[in-house]
Structures are given as structure tokens and as C-alpha cells.
């Protein structure tokens, strides 16, 4: 295809040169973008005395920082809390959002458009803006310092419903009609037709939801004072106040927390990037 | 031969089943939407309304609420730190939105070709977005520590240093903006890539045959056809900047609003008032102003995009 494209300005070798330079610039920028993350990992492997040296490769690499983070503080407990919260939110949110998305896209009922509009109107309201009244509500419901307080409010967001609705709008009508002729009810159609068809978008959303709930800081900071309920982000932030000079521990802890999400990203990058790139904008 | 009565009965019956099928669909629709609708109502709708209610109350020492009318709003009007917060928020948005636009679009154009090299590069540009903001804030804070952080050393070596990234009120907000850009640019790159993908290749090929250079092609094809995407990016990044979606975590960890309130965006100031001083009513009053502003922005956004469907204009 590229050979057929007209090239009115450059000869073939010039094109190769330009492309080579282009790739070089891209690679340099990409390295600069990744540098802070590489630096984080590097410090994680450096002993305390070396943490402010300017070499990217540690001179005397050590695992001590990681060992300390995992054994010296209840970091594994924080990781388990984060995992529990993220996994529960992801599963419940996917269940509710596919239901709502299906109804809003495929079923006809009065007030549907109004409902969708109301849901969409919360799209851009972010947590910091409503955190004070949300705190008051969650407190009134007796969910401060509880897993319920960490999990339940995080389930509901317009983004997932919106993406799923857009996806269901694009499914062909015939699939449902065939099921209906066979006498399937709405629940049956949702469960055995719509859900299996949603597998690609659900896996993308599952990763997005999991990541989004692995990373929050503000909400857990606000509603949990019991260290047994701390999620990893609080654990790391607390490292800073406890050991203000121990950057090597902090970077090791940061590495431990960043690694699961980066691994997920490397495995599922195609789905993540495709779902973000296309679904939201069409 | 059927009697009139039989036909009438059949019609009635048909009418009734059609009606009840319709009602069944209604009920199913409501039940399917119910869990999410209820959850969004309780944890988003009610808080937005409650913000307004709380804003006319004051929390007294024992956690009781007393009605104070417009007192919180008056206090806001006379509070220089509120106005400082509003100014810092505006400044943050004014720096962040154009920078994100340029970086997002620039990166998208850079890695637009679909080949393996560009796929790897895209992932590298997106990777920061996979890390939590607390980690982002800590890593950057560590790199710009006065004199000994790796970037401080670098800028000093290049002789553009001498200043403190986070300790100098003139630089702290810029540092926060740059860290935010670093975190967000990969995400906006993806949005732009989606937009670029929708531009038909033939336009470029036709323009090249007509002798249009890369700059002309960008100016007369890419930019105009990217209008819906640009619009989306500008709106979303502006709302995020004002609402402090990313700014909060970064600022809370890196500067706590300092030095001299130079990075105290409204959302950080609101948080300090509420959870630092227990001034829930006052914080709610400030948040209400933000909620109203965001609702207006969202409504305009919705109207302009015709229900959130971002089609190209015909």
C-alpha cells in the first residue's frame, strides 16, 4: 500500500531517512516518558546510601527494600485489601452496568431517554467535587471504616453504562428477535444472548475497572482510619509520613504497587487501548 | 364462518396481549436499570443535592448541624484563600488544557502509522497512565528534590537550575501541571488516535496528488476533520482540571497546597476546610459552586454533542 502512495517530494532514500529520524525522535521521547518509572524501579533496588546517586543501574543492587516493605510493614494486608475491593467492584459493576446498558439500548419504556440523560449528566462529576456530602451520606449509612464503604460507592459510574449502551446499540436486532421467537423472556435474552455477545467489551471494561479501583487514594483516605482496612495507596502515602527520608522503601513499595497494573497492561494492552480509543467516541 | 362477537373477542384478545407485552417490556426495562439508577441516585445525585443543603448549615462542636443561611456564601465571598484557590484552579486549567491538547495530538501524529514499532511506542507513552497518582506524585517528588533529585541535578548541570521545583511558589504549580501532563498525555493520545483513524485516507492521497505538503494536509484536512475529537478532548480535560480529578492526588502528596498556597486548587482548599477543620458547611458551599459550574458545562457539552454521540459533522 505504501509503495503505491504518491511521493511527490522525496525520493525513496529520502523517505527512508525521514522515517528513520522520525523513529529515532519517537524512541527518545518514549524513553523520556518511561524514565520516571525506570527511575522508580532503579531506586527500589538501591541501598539507602545510594538512592541519590545519578546512575540508572544500581551499583550494588539489593532486594532488601522489597523484603522490608513486604515483611516489615503490613503491606501484604494492604495489597489484599486493594485486591478485594477492586475485584468486588469490578464484578458487581459489570453485572449492573450490562443490565442497565442493555435496557437503555434495547428495551423501550417510558422515561428511558430521561433516565439516560440523567445518567449521562453525572458523567463528568468527579469524586473530589462531591466528597463532602458523599462522606456525610456514607457516614449516615454506617459505612465508615468498612469494606462496604470502600466498595459500594465505587460501583456506580456513568462511564461504564455509557460505553456498554453504545456497544449494545450497535448489535444487530435479529439476534434478540430469534431468541424472542423461541419464547425467551427478557432476563433469558440478557443472560444467554446479550452477555455472551458482550465478552470483548466486558473484558476490556473489567481491566479498566480493576485498574481504576486498584489506584484510588482520596476516597480510602477519607473514610478509613483503621489501618487494617488500608489499601495500598494509603500504605505508600503513609511510608512518606513515617519515614520521610526513606525514599528507597517508598520506591520499592511504589514498584510493588505499580507492577500488577503494568503487567495487566502489557498483557491486555490491545483491549485496553482499543476500548478507550474507539468505544467512547462513536 | 366467524361471528362478529368472535372477531371482536379476538381483536380484544390481540389488543390485550400486545398491551401486556408492551407492559412487560416496560417493567423489564425498569428492573434492569434499577440497580444502577438507585446507586447513582444515592451516591451521586443525592450528594450533589446535599451539597446545596449542607452549604446553609454549620457543623457545631458535637457534630450537630445548625442553620446559618447564606453565612457560608458570605464567608466565601470575603475569603481571600477561596479566591486564591479559584485563581490557582483557573491557572492550572489554562496551562493544562492547551498543553495536553498539543502533547496528545503531537504524540498521536508521531505514532499514527500502524506497525509494530509504533504499537510498542504507543504503549510506552500510555504506560504512565497505568500507575496510580500517588506513585506518580512520589516518584516525581523524589526526582525534583532540591539539589539531590535527579532532575534537579540535571537542570543545575544545564545551568537552568538553581530554582526549587516545589519549594518556589513561582514554579510549584508549573511542576504540578507538567506532572499531570506526563500522566494524562498517553490517554489523550489514544483519543486522538481514534479520531485520526476516522479520517478517510483518500483525502490525504487526493491532497498529495494535488501537491499539498504535510503542513497543508494537517491544516486543511486533519485539523478540520478532527473537530469533534478536539472538542471532546478540550471539554473533558477542562472539566477534569476544574474538578481536580487528577490534580488532587498529585497536589495532596507533593505539596499539600503549598508553598504559600501556590498549588492550592479549590478542590484541595475545600478538602482542607472539610476534613482538616471540620467546616463541612463551608466546604459544601464552595463545592456547590463547583457542582453548579460543572453541571452547566456538562449540559452545554451534552447539547453540543447531541446526546454524547460524537459523530463527524456531515
Number of strands of chain A: 0
Output the helix-strand order of chain A: HHHHHHHHHHHHH
- In terms of per-residue confidence, which ranges of chain A show pLDDT below 50 for 5 or more consecutive residues? none
Bin the strand percentage of chain A: under 5%
Estimate the helix proportion of chain A, in percent: over 70%
Mean pLDDT of chain A, to the nearest integer, reads 86
Helix amount of chain B = over 70%
| Order of secondary-structure elements of chain B | HEEHHHHHHHHHHHH
State the oligomer: heterodimer
Main sheet properties of chain A: none
What is the topological layout?
The complex is a heterodimer of chains A (282) and B (314).
Chain A: H1 12-44, H2 64-72, H3 75-106, H4 112-121, H5 127-140, H6 147-155, H7 158-169, H8 174-181, H9 186-197, H10 199-214, H11 218-223, H12 232-242, H13 247-278
Helix pairs in contact in A: 1-13, 2-13, 3-6, 3-7, 3-10, 3-12, 8-9, 10-13, 12-13
Chain B: H1 4-54, E1 57-59, E2 65-67, H2 71-77, H3 80-110, H4 116-126, H5 133-143, H6 150-157, H7 169-197, H8 201-209, H9 214-225, H10 227-243, H11 247-254, H12 266-277, H13 280-304
Helix pairs in contact in B: 1-13, 2-13, 3-7, 3-10, 3-12, 4-7, 5-11, 7-10, 7-11, 10-13, 12-13
Keywords (chain A): Cell membrane, Membrane, Plasmid, Transmembrane, Transmembrane helix, Transport
Protein name (chain A): Carbohydrate ABC transporter permease
Family (chain A): Belongs to the binding-protein-dependent transport system permease family.
Description:
The complex is a heterodimer of chains A (282) and B (314). Chain A has 13 helices and no strands. Chain A is mainly alpha-helical and 282 residues long. Chain A is globular, with a radius of gyration of 24 Å. By secondary structure, chain B is mainly α. Chain B contains 13 helices and two strands, in the order H-E-E-H-H-H-H-H-H-H-H-H-H-H-H. Chain B has helices spanning 4-54, 71-77, 80-110, 116-126, 133-143, 150-157, 169-197, 201-209, 214-225, 227-243, 247-254, 266-277, 280-304, and strands spanning 57-59, 65-67. Chain B has a two-stranded antiparallel ribbon with strand order 1-2. The N and C termini of chain B lie far apart (57 Å). Chain A: It is found in: Cell membrane. Chain A: Residues 79-268 form the ABC transmembrane type-1 domain. Chain A: The chain crosses the membrane at residues 21-45, 83-104, 116-138, 144-168, 189-212, 249-268.
Amino acid at each position: 500500500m505504501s509503495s503505491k502512495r504518491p511521493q511527490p517530494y522525496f525520493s525513496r532514500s529520502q523517505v527512508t531517512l525521514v522515517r528513520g529520524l522520525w523513529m529515532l525522535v519517537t524512541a527518545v521521547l518514549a524513553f523520556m516518558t518511561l524514565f520516571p518509572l525506570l527511575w522508580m524501579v532503579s531506586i527500589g533496588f538501591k541501598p539507602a546510601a545510594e538512592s541519590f546517586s545519578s546512575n540508572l543501574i544500581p551499583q550494588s543492587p539489593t532486594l532488601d527494600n522489597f523484603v522490608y516493605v513486604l515483611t516489615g510493614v503490613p503491606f501484604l494486608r494492604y495489597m489484599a485489601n486493594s485486591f478485594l475491593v477492586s475485584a468486588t467492584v469490578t464484578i458487581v459493576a459489570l453485572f449492573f452496568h450490562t443490565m442497565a446498558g442493555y435496557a437503555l439500548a434495547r428495551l423501550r419504556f417510558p422515561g428511558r431517554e430521561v433516565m439516560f440523560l440523567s445518567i449521562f449528566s453525572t458523567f463528568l462529576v468527579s469524586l473530589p467535587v462531591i466528597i463532602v456530602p458523599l462522606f456525610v451520606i456514607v457516614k449516615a449509612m454506617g459505612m465508615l471504616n468498612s469494606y462496604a464503604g470502600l466498595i459500594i460507592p465505587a460501583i456506580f459510574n456513568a462511564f461504564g453504562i455509557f460505553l456498554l449502551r453504545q456497544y449494545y446499540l450497535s448489535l444487530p436486532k435479529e439476534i434478540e428477535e430469534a431468541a424472542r421467537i423461541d419464547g425467551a423472556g427478557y432476563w433469558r435474552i440478557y443472560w444467554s444472548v446479550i452477555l455472551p455477545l458482550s465478552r470483548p467489551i466486558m473484558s476490556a471494561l473489567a481491566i479498566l475497572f480493576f485498574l481504576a479501583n486498584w489506584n484510588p487514594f482520596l476516597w480510602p483516605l477519607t473514610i478509613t482510619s483503621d489501618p487494617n482496612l488500608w489499601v495500598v495507596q494509603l500504605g505508600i502515602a503513609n511510608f512518606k509520613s513515617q519515614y520521610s527520608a526513606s525514599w528507597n522503601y517508598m520506591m520499592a513499595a511504589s514498584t510493588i504497587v505499580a507492577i500488577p497494573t503494568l503487567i495487566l497492561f502489557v498483557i491486555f494492552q490491545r483491549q485496553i487501548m482499543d476500548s478507550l480509543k474507539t468505544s467512547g467516541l462513536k | 364462518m366467524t361471528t362478529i362477537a368472535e372477531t371482536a373477542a379476538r381483536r380484544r384478545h390481540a389488543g390485550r396481549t400486545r398491551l401486556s407485552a408492551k407492559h412487560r417490556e416496560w417493567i423489564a426495562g425498569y428492573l434492569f436499570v434499577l440497580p444502577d439508577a438507585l446507586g447513582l441516585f444515592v451516591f451521586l445525585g443525592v450528594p450533589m443535592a446535599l451539597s446545596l443543603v449542607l452549604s446553609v448549615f454549620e457543623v457545631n462542636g458535637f457534630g450537630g448541624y445548625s442553620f446559618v443561611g447564606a453565612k457560608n456564601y458570605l464567608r466565601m465571598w470575603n475569603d481571600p484563600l477561596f479566591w486564591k484557590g479559584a485563581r490557582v484552579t483557573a491557572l492550572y486549567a489554562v496551562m493544562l488544557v492547551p498543553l495536553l491538547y498539543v502533547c496528545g495530538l503531537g504524540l498521536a501524529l508521531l505514532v499514527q502509522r500502524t506497525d509494530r514499532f509504533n504499537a510498542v511506542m504507543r504503549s510506552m507513552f500510555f504506560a504512565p497512565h497505568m500507575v496510580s497518582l500517588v506513585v506518580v506524585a512520589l516518584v516525581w517528588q523524589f526526582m525534583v528534590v532540591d539539589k539531590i533529585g535527579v532532575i534537579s541535578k540535571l537542570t543545575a548541570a544545564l545551568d537552568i537550575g538553581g530554582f526549587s521545583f516545589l519549594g518556589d511558589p513561582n514554579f510549584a504549580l508549573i511542576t504540578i501541571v507538567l506532572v499531570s501532563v506526563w500522566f494524562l498525555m498517553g490517554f489523550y493520545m489514544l483519543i486522538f488516535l481514534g479520531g485520526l483513524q476516522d479520517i478517510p485516507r483518500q483525502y490525504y492521497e487526493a491532497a498529495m496528488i494535488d501537491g499539498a505538503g504535510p503542513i497543508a494536509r494537517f491544516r486543511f484536512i486533519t485539523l478540520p476533520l478532527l473537530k469533534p475529537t478536539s472538542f471532546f478532548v478540550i471539554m473533558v480535560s477542562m472539566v477534569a482540571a476544574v474538578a481536580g480529578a487528577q490534580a488532587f492526588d498529585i497536589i495532596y502528596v507533593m505539596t499539600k497546597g503549598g508553598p504559600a498556597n501556590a498549588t492550592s486548587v479549590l478542590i484541595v482548599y475545600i478538602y482542607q476546610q472539610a476534613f482538616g477543620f471540620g467546616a463541612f458547611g463551608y466546604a459544601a458551599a464552595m463545592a456547590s459552586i463547583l457542582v453548579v459550574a460543572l453541571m452547566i458545562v456538562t449540559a452545554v457539552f451534552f447539547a453540543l454533542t447531541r446526546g454524547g454521540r460524537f459523530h463527524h459533522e456531515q
